[in-house]
Write a structure and sequence with these properties.
The chain is an all-beta fold. 3% of the residues lie in helices and 56% in strands. The chain has a 22-stranded antiparallel β-barrel. It is globular, with a radius of gyration of 25 Å.
């Protein structure tokens, strides 16, 4: 499988914890945004932006580019019945500065018609600078119910998430860090002494599915029952969510140049109340005559209604979106698209297709080649068009952003090798400029990323490598490092009569120096800057880990080279990262 580097750290956790290689090296600590090369401000829950250039294939209303995407969890649901009757997993990671990560995952088949899924997550950290405390809470529960003949299924889910960040705006004097003229990073003068960001999300959804097909008799022991062999299905889904963000600052005069409402206090509020209604149809594996389909087709119509509030000003937005996809039964090709028929985003569209070719089918040289092409035209995020707050006000009328992407992925599973090349061409890109105001680029942005993954093994020794190269025609718009690499060298062996799988080794992470985007707490966004270079710092982490049956645990020391390297270690300008820190964690699965 090719590495998916630009997904969120939450997705990384979910994928890797279902992988038997979890106990190996760099997947031990789910708090490390380095796993997907995300940049953050040095605390677990602070907003983040990917170091590797990426884009999201979605259309429809977007209130604001989401800097919290790397830590949010509410958008992932749990459909269907788990493979096990009962499954519970507990994960706990702890480090210095009260850094804690705790999750509980529970899946249970209540009876043959009902299954339950519960997820609980809690993250907290005091951070490494003054006023850098962050905490987050997420809870979700869902039920999947099917009827005796499986003609009708229903899925329901509810969720709640809260994130609270103390925003310090970074340090005032970077020279203190660069010259090591300080005792503790928490004693450094900060820019914002009284600022906070709050985000709260809550909502739920209910989905119904009607299966069409032939009723067949199923005999189990002496009991004969009837069951639907589905050939197609109609589904309907209603979802509602509330997304609230509040920025508070009782001393805005310490940082901001402009005050539109109050020079003594900032209390900016942004709310989105979103209702979504879907109606869809799709073909399934079997045909009415009993033969298998060679391809699948699905289509759905989505209506979204948004009440968007900015500081007591309400805007009502509606969209009608048509989405369809066609794919082969073998999974070697797929075409999908979407079009906004009417509403605020009318005219937005997305068209994407991919094709996978098995190049060599021999056991030794088996390899795959996948080509993907995507074109998207999308309305600019609403808050980049219209924004009203205590310190920033703008009214813009930007053209749609047009994005073309082409990628080639090559992999050789037996040799643990993969190569991925992505080419982007984006016209009318909107970004935050040096003055933290939106700008629309007047020339197309061109970006190429090339990622290579190769793992080596010699006896008990492993050497895993991931290297990325990026190039663009405008580093002033797409501030990305040219080189990124991650390496893991470790010794792994079963000990104590093969009862324990133990590992010991070093992780090394590096990205070249570049003008990383700076962070604006009031906007909760990143903006371009051309005055301070970050990166060019190899971070080395030492770890010991083990696995006994369903228990995995680790102890690691991050940034062990801190004492012999310069102290000017930043990922985001004005937010120096932590020095040498100790972390440990455990993952325990209870299976039935």
């Amino acid at each position: 499988m090719l590495p998916t580097l630009a997904q969120s750290p939450n997705d990384t956790i979910n994928i890797l914890y279902n992988d038997s290689s979890l106990y190996r090296v760099h997947v031990y600590n789910p708090l490390m945004k380095w796993n997907n090369f995300y940049s953050n401000n040095g605390s677990l829950l602070l907003v983040s932006t990917p170091l590797i250039f990426t884009d999201v294939n979605e259309i429809g209303f977007k209130a604001i580019p989401n800097s919290f995407r790397g830590i949010e969890h509410y958008y992932s649901g749990n459909y269907g019945f788990p493979k096990r009757q009962l499954f519970t997993e507990i994960q706990f990671v702890m480090g210095l500065k009260k850094e804690q990560f705790f999750t509980v995952t529970h899946r249970q088949v209540i009876n043959k018609y009902v299954s339950l899924a519960i997820d609980y997550r809690r993250i907290k950290s005091d951070g490494y600078l003054n006023r850098q405390t962050s905490e987050g809470l997420n809870f979700s529960a869902s039920l999947t119910q099917k009827y005796a003949n499986e003609r009708y299924n229903i899925y329901t889910r509810g969720y709640y998430e809260k994130i609270v960040l103390q925003e310090n705006g970074g340090i005032l004097d970077v020279a203190q860090v660069d010259n090591k003229s300080f005792v503790s990073k928490q004693l450094l003068d900060i820019t914002l002494p009284q600022a906070k960001n709050y985000k709260q999300v809550r909502g739920g959804e209910i989905e119904n599915r009607w299966n069409f097909g032939n009723l067949v008799e199923v005999k189990k022991d002496t009991v004969i029952s009837k069951k639907v062999v589905p050939t197609s299905a109609i589904w309907h889904k209603i979802a509602y969510s509330e997304i609230n963000r509040v920025y508070k600052d009782t001393l805005p005069g310490a940082y901001y140049e402009r005050y539109y409402f109050d020079a003594d206090s900032t209390n900016d509020k942004f709310f989105n109340f979103i209702t979504e209604n879907y109606l869809g149809w799709k073909t399934l594996e079997n045909k009415r005559g009993g033969e298998k389909r060679k391809m699948f087709f699905s289509s759905n119509l989505k209506y979204e209604h948004i009440d968007h509030w900015q500081n007591r000003t309400k805007i009502i937005i509606d969209n009608v979106i048509l989405q369809s996809d066609l794919q082969s039964a073998e999974g070697n090709w797929k075409v999908n698209g979407g079009y906004v028929v009417s509403g605020y985003n009318a005219g937005d569209f997305l068209l994407s297709g991919d094709y996978t070719k098995l190049l060599f089918d021999s056991s030794r040289y088996k390899s795959y080649l996948k080509a993907t092409a995507t074109y998207k035209s999308q309305e600019v995020a609403y808050t980049f068009q219209h924004f009203v707050s205590n310190n920033f006000v703008w009214y813009n009328n930007y053209s749609k952003i047009n994005t073309a992407k082409f990628s080639i992925d090559f992999s050789m599973p037996r040799y643990d090798a993969a190569l991925s090349i992505n080419a982007y061409s984006i016209s009318n890109l909107v970004f935050l400029g040096l003055d933290q105001q939106p700008l629309q680029a007047n020339v197309p942005l061109q970006v190429i990323t090339a990622m290579f993954n190769k793992d080596f093994k010699l006896g008990y020794f492993h050497f895993n490598n991931l290297i990325c190269y990026q190039a663009t025609n405008s580093y002033a718009v797409a501030n990305i490092p040219q080189f990124i690499s991650k390496h893991s060298l470790y010794f792994q062996k079963y000990i104590f009569k093969n009862a324990m799988d133990a590992s010991i080794g070093i992780d090394l992470n590096y990205f070249s120096g570049y003008y990383a985007n700076a962070y604006s707490p009031a906007l909760n966004q990143f903006y371009v800057q051309q005055s301070y270079i970050t990166g060019n710092y190899p971070q080395a982490d030492f770890f010991i880990s083990f696995k006994v049956k369903t228990v995995r645990a680790f102890v690691r020391v991050d940034n062990i080279n801190n004492y012999i390297m310069p102290a000017n270690y930043y990922i985001v300008p004005f937010y120096p990262m932590q020095g040498t820190t100790l972390k440990f964690g455990v993952n325990w699965r209870f299976l039935n």
